């Protein structure tokens, strides 16, 4: 991928720039951080602010000279894109909720010039067709100058607005409810050139101001809406991606080559044609289609992760007998030259199908490409070995993780784009190990805390305007905080979540059945555990007289994590209470669910079924005595009659594998990931075939385990103050791993010959730790440490 570049919405030409690099960094001024802003939220007063609409706002600005700095703060509901003198400045806001409504701070001075300037902002509200992750109050835009120097651009009635009637929503797939509607754009109604200084806006309307901007603690009547908060993550990456192949066509004389950007496709009048394009790998990108002529034509773009036949998806590389199904946008050209179509929101696709029908005029398709977008992770971590298959697993896993990380983490980019706590815990560890960037991790932890309901538990996914509760995911939120605590020295941040941890645990402990000592059966909401094939809706089994042993042990694990945190932060009474409750739960599960004849835990008291899951949790929590744990793992790893874990819960399977001292088997357990690659997947799927989603970040756990298990790099104390390196290369003869650390990078480079191990470990800064191999431990010191066993 090359040429990070400017995204232009419906401009005559395409300009390039390094997104975010052209504008100086800026921070909000003190007056933006507290109290009430002098700027007003504005909208088009002629239309309902709650319904679907795309709006164009303009503000002229006369300057005697080009300023050295001109810092503004901007936000909108649902979303906005800001252009200054026709050049893109920023877009957002970063996704949040009404109690934490983000705004961006940007220095637009490089885009300004002496004399006439124009700020042009597109704001859109998808109304009832908004994505599930989009929380909204009403359509609105707010711009606030950072100081009195910039106050001329504060939003008020001096801004002009026009509703853009060229846009209408498409809702062409039943599952679009989670990611929102798609776009039909009529080029004959589009206000071409609206973002330029010379555009005639004399027939536009004065915007309606209706409420001042407010920050947390601003004086008023306590309304909790649009609490303006500085953006706490970087702007998303924007990088051009060229499509790699035209796979087939129908209705044309030959296979077109226009995707190279140099060979326009000329389509005669009154022609119907179809062109199937292949990106070569799954991506999340804004498609940009440049056309000339073709008035009266209709262009449909359909986006798909894979092609389908009557049996499903099959090999993702094969196209014969398969069709492209999925979400779609439509563009109706106005007949002018050099028109550029780009939808409001990015699309997820490997395949794009163009269906074109021309009218009385011929159409020229000049180019079609994507602008990749996602969280701008910088890759610091890496893994290398003598097995090239692992390199492909690493590459595929990281692509999966990246496509599922934008302004929040996503479970999947195609179907839902929602941040689920069970998924996010795994995603967060991958981010920390591959990139070292913890900003999206911190945001996720905070957003779940904001989501807690009146009952005390967190939403399963957040932000979301469709509330959903998966109680075990609240427990994983506690685990995620514990993970963060182990990897980062950030006491004030971690301490702030202790009240939320207490409310979550109170919800659960109130539901312990005094008759059984396990959690009660029939817990409220959706108690999802894993997409095991024999479990209805992924819910762990229970009976009328017994709750789930699996969920009970998940609670015990969360109590243990909470006890660690309470001890650290001087709450000994709560630490003691949580530890005692956890011990009681483990004791009860073992006494009432252990089947001595099988040497396994049952799924619930008296259960005829057994699962990998409950025994994994039995090992991880020490509900199963330590002396029996390896034998139990051997059984669950070799007995296919047990309910098997899918990709999600295999993360916890590997935790148990390590705990019982069998981690040298890890690379042998990667067969299911290799099988996905073998059938053409370029990202890792949600579940084994047949899968709904081809890209699900909970399946990217190898990117964590190749570093944390094979290279063996893990924090030995909170804040990653010390490190423990216990490698498990298994069949590999050579491994090299780099793990980001707050003091620099930890590098492990080892060669194995039977039981002999040699190489070196480099620790950054003042980091110290231990190296463990075959029961022997040596001390590690800052700098390069030779390794020889």
Give a topology summary:
Blueprint: E1 2-4, H1 30-33, E2 36-43, E3 53-63, E4 71-77, E5 79-84, E6 87-92, E7 101-107, E8 115-125, E9 140-145, E10 160-163, E11 167-170, E12 182-186, E13 205-206, E14 208-214, E15 228-230, E16 237-241, E17 245-250, E18 265-267, E19 272-293, E20 298-304, E21 307-308, E22 323-324, E23 327-332, E24 339-341, E25 347-357, E26 363-374, E27 382-385, H2 388-403, H3 421-434, H4 439-450, H5 471-487, H6 491-495, H7 498-509, H8 549-568, H9 572-593, E28 594-595, E29 600-601, H10 612-621, H11 626-638, H12 647-659, H13 671-678, H14 702-710, E30 713-715, E31 722-725, E32 734-741, E33 744-753, E34 756-763, E35 768-773, E36 776-780, E37 783-788
Parallel strand pairs: 7-15, 12-23, 31-35
Antiparallel strand pairs: 1-16, 2-14, 3-8, 3-10, 4-7, 4-9, 5-6, 5-8, 10-13, 11-12, 16-26, 17-19, 18-26, 19-24, 19-25, 19-26, 20-23, 20-25, 21-22, 27-32, 28-29, 30-31, 32-33, 33-34, 34-37, 35-36
Helix pairs in contact: 3-4, 3-5, 3-14, 4-5, 5-7, 5-8, 7-8, 8-9, 8-10, 10-11, 10-12
Major sheet characteristics = 12 strands, mixed
List how many beta strands DSSP finds. Answer: 37
Residue stretches low in confidence (pLDDT < 50, at least 5 long) are 1-21
Overall 3D form = globular
User: How far is the N terminus from the C terminus?
Assistant: 43 Å
* CATH domain topology of the largest domain: Jelly Rolls
């Amino acid at each position: 991928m090359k040429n990070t570049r400017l995204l232009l919405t419906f401009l005559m030409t395409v300009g390039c720039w390094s997104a975010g690099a052209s504008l100086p960094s800026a921070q909000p001024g003190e007056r933006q951080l507290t109290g009430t802003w002098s700027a007003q939220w504005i909208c088009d007063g002629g239309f309902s602010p709650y319904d679907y609409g795309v709006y164009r706002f303009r503000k002229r600005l006369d300057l005697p000279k080009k300023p050295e700095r001109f810092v503004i703060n901007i936000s909108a509901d649902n979303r906005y894109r800001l252009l200054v003198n026709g050049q893109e400045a920023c877009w957002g806001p970063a996704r949040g909720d009404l109690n934490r409504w983000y705004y961006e701070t940007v220095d637009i001075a490089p885009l300004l010039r002496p004399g006439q300037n124009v700020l042009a902002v597109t704001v859109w509200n998808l109304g009832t067709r908004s994505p599930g992750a989009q929380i909204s109050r009403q359509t609105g835009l707010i711009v606030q100058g950072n100081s009195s120097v910039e106050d001329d651009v504060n939003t008020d009635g001096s801004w002009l607005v026009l509703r853009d009637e060229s846009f209408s929503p498409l809702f062409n797939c039943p599952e679009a409810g989670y990611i929102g509607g798609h776009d039909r754009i009529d080029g004959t109604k589009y206000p071409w050139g609206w973002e330029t200084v010379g555009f005639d806006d004399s027939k536009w309307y004065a915007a309606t101001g209706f409420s001042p901007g407010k920050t947390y603690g601003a004086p008023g009547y306590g309304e909790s809406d649009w609490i303006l908060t500085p953006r706490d993550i970087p702007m998303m990456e924007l990088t051009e991606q060229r499509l790699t192949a035209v796979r087939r066509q129908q209705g044309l004389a030959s296979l077109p080559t226009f995707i190279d950007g140099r060979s326009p496709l000329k389509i005669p009048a009154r022609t119907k044609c179809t062109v199937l394009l292949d990106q070569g790998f799954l991506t999340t990108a804004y498609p940009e289609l440049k056309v000339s002529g073709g008035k009266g034509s209709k262009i449909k773009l359909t986006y798909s992760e894979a092609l389908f036949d009557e049996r499903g998806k099959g090999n993702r590389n094969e196209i014969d007998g398969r069709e492209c199904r999925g979400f779609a946008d439509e563009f109706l050209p106005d007949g002018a030259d050099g028109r550029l179509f780009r939808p409001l929101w990015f699309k997820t696709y490997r395949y794009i199908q163009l269906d074109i029908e021309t009218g009385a005029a011929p159409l020229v398709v000049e180019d079609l490409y994507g602008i990749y977008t996602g969280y701008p992770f910088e890759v610091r971590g890496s893994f290398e070995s003598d097995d090239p298959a692992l390199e492909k697993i690493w590459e595929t896993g990281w692509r999966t993780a990246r496509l599922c990380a934008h302004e929040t983490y996503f479970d999947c980019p195609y179907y839902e784009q929602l941040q689920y706590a069970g998924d996010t815990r795994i995603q967060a560890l991958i981010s920390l190990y591959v990139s070292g960037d913890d900003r999206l991790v911190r945001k996720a932890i905070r957003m779940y805390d904001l989501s807690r309901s009146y009952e005390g538990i967190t939403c399963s996914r957040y932000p979301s305007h469709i509330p959903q509760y998966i109680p075990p995911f609240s427990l994983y939120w506690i685990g995620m905080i514990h993970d963060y605590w182990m990897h980062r020295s950030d006491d004030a941040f971690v301490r702030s979540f202790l009240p939320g941890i207490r409310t979550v645990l109170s919800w659960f402990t109130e539901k312990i059945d005094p008759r059984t000592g396990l959690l009660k059966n029939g817990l409220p909401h959706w108690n999802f555990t894993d997409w095991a094939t024999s479990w209805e809706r992924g819910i762990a089994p229970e009976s009328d007289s017994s709750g789930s042993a699996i969920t009970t042990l998940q609670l015990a694990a969360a109590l243990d994590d909470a006890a660690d945190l309470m001890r650290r932060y001087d709450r000994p009474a709560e630490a003691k209470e949580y530890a005692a409750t956890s011990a009681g739960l483990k004791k009860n599960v073992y006494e009432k669910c252990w089947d001595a004849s099988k040497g396994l835990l049952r799924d619930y008291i008296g259960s005829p079924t057994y699962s990998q899951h409950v025994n994994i949790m039995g090992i991880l929590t020490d509900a199963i005595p330590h002396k029996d744990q390896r034998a139990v793992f051997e059984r669950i790893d070799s007995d296919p009659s047990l309910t098997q874990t899918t990709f999600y819960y295999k993360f916890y399977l590997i935790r148990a594998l390590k705990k019982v001292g069998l981690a040298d088997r890890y690379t042998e357990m990667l067969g299911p990931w290799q099988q996905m690659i073998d059938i053409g997947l370029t990202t890792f799927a949600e579940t084994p075939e047949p899968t709904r989603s081809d890209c699900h970040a909970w399946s990217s756990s190898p990117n964590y385990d190749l570093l944390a298990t094979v290279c063996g790099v893990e924090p030995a104390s909170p804040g990653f103050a010390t490190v423990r390196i216990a490698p498990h290369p298994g069949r590999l003869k050579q491994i090299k791993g780099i793990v980001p650390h707050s003091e620099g990078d930890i590098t492990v480079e080892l060669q194995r010959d039977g039981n002999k191990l040699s190489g070196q470990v480099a620790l950054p800064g003042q980091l110290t730790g231990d190296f463990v191999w075959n029961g022997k431990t040596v001390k590690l010191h800052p700098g390069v440490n030779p390794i020889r066993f």
